[in-house]
Give the backbone structure.
Amino acid sequence: MKLVLAPMEGLADDVLRGVLTRAARYDWCVTEFVRVTDAVLPHRCYTRLSPELGKGARTEAGTPVRVQLLGNDPEMLAANAAHLARLHPYGIDLNFGCPTPLVNRHRGGAALLGEPELLHRIAAAVRAAVPREMPVTAKMRLGIDDTSKAIACALALESGGINELVVHARTKADGYKPIRRWEWVARIREAVTLPLIANGEVWTVADWQAIRTASGCDDVMLGRGAVADPLLARRIRGDADAEPTDADWRVIEAMIGDFWSRVQRKVLPAQSPGRLKQWLGLMQRRYPQAERLFRTLREARRSPELSAILQREGVIDASREAA
């Protein structure tokens, strides 16, 4: 049974990946995507997105990191994958799941799910461009507007030589609506022989049990559910109560303090409050304490103001903030 931390564009950067993988054990995690167009990108584009590449391609907690590529040109994706491979990532992942309009307008992410033959060419080109021992994986949705080509896309990626496939159980049109097409993961699982990882709408231990039953997959990728409850992977592994407790919130407070300290060092002062509010906004779903804290600091616009609130609420202490 494997648990994987999902790539989450605009949310799970190296700071949050680091915090989440220290909180619970994941078998590996995947970065936000690197967009590939018409050039071979310099190494700094990859190391900026994934500083873990300079640390053995692992988070501080030791979780292996795969780097995700997004694009539609097989030759350019292959050239970039070969260049990236020199940095020794834990693996290279291909994005056929992003549903955002900007990405899709440029024929990226889930917009390619109407072209199984192109998915095959991309997978085959990237697989041939990197060392055989380096995993090449892919993450796909079930289709663009419907599921009619879901199995064809999965078979195309398998024949292209990928090592593992993550299936996000929604179409592009579904976006992030609370839709669970887990039965389609089971249909794909019956059609392919490569390892399959189920993904989509796993917020609780009960959801994890349900997606495994419905899909027939042992392995599950956690996305926003792991951000809303940073201890979800720990709960699934039986290392914490199945539902959040008051004691868990004290653990979460320490994680918030760690995150706040790190995010201030990474982004501009005007950006850091938004990053913490974004995380708390998701945690409201699982922790009433997060909802209260979010309301308290919602109007804060500057880092010093937000730090003062966190100190007053006992989330951080002045001595640690000064250090």
Q: What stands out?
A: Residues 246-266 form the longest helix (21 residues). The mean pLDDT is 95.
